[in-house]
Amino acid sequence: MNYSYRRCGGNLSPEKQSEFRSLKTTHNATLGELERYKLLVDSVEDYAIFLLDADGYIQTWNKGAEKNKGYTANEIIGKHFSIFYLPTDIESSKPERELKLARQLGRVEDEDWRVRKDGSQFWANVVITALRDDHGNVVGFAKVTRDLTERKRNEDLLRSNNAQLKKQQRDLEALNISKDEFISLASHQLRTPATAVKQLLGMITQGFVGDMAPEQLSLVAKAYDANERQIRVVENLLRVAQLDARKVSLQTKPVNLRELFARIVEDHETLVAKKGQTIGLEFEDAVPTSSNLDADHFHMALSNLIDNASKYSQEGERISIAVGTKDDMLYVSVSDNGVGISPKDQKLLFKKFSRIPNDLSEKVGGSGLGLYWVKKVMAMHNGNVSVQSAEAKGSTFVLTVPLEGVDA
Amino acid sequence: MRKILVVEDEDLLRESYRIIISTEPYDVDTAKNGQEALDKCAEKTYDLILLDLMMPVLDGVGFLERFDNPDTKVVILSNLSTGEVLEKALKLGADSNIIKASLSPRDLLSKVRYEVTSIT
I want to staple A396 with a disulfide (CB 3.0 to 4.6 A). Which of A16, A227, A292, A335 is the partner? Predict the structure, then answer.
């Protein structure tokens, strides 16, 4: 358009002429702005931005639309926008439904598959906005489409990987449970005959069925000891399997600490006396009379440490147990002057099936499960087990559990 | 003479326990499950029953549910050291629990002696 004040009449008053010039400047500025705006929309490459008329026919087309959908402006302007939808969506009147919704709500957003000119599909994020005139009548729609195929593909991949991982996790958990059940069952089955062997050999070694030549008796005694070791291994296996299968629950109740420790020491005195060893028990004054504990678990954990101290110490040594408190925790240390454990081996000590090679380990046997069980059971108590040791310098194992003071 | 009933399904163990306990002057009978034990108890009142828990036909808990004789002391002789079955058995009136696998013949005998002498 060419506005010329001369064509509008050259006989305007100077005031009118000035007003006319000012209007012309504003008009040209608006036109310039529109032009720039059109250029901006046209040049956007990542978004398809175009206008539809009130019936859904395409009126404008930008670079992003061309890139995204594969049509040139000449090919597509004047066509109905349903051309971008899947045949099944067209059949179900989805394009019309979306325009209707945009008309009612002002705006509609959708994420779904759309079709390019070459028939290939892409995952689109589509926003359709209704455009209204001054009277509120819908005169057309602005449509902005983004190609999110790559994001969708990544999301799908992630989802499928996730589902696969979850399935693998479920499979592994099921496998782990059946492993624990197998160990549990096998241990039960192994223990019954081992218990019978213990009675039968015990009847011979303990003289229930008459006397035997010393050489014969010594062989039977060895068989008895070997069977004892087997029973211990089977019991440790069973205990660990039950713990791993979470079939163990804490039974805490107020326990008289001095009585509990005295009983535990008493239970072991006969055994360590066989190696000429003794057990010393010391209590700090600050230790309360009783605390909430699972006495059975604590008994077994401490027994384990005392057994180890005895096994890995030479004959005649003393095992010292000290009971104290610090920061609301109960500390129980078991110290020996035995073979000790190198720093390297200490790291393996509480792992399942770890056996530390030393001068006595071949002789004493073991399942490599005892300390693993202690660690796990102490964790159940919100406690811990730790070790301080050096080779040939003895070891100190410390059990810690929260003191839940009862009638202290 | 004190009367003792050993209830144990494992033949070797049952026979061993019988031989071991019989070395002292006790009247020892055996049963291989809870049902057999109930049958024996119907004929005779025992001072002490050593009762295994895991047995076919009728297990230890099943036996305790049906058995009611205040003159008889029942001691569990099983390999269970914790768990529901053991707790149930103790609730049903069993007096105490002995772990089979930890017991040598001499230990067994001294336990029996202890249990029998503590009967009033």
Answer: A335
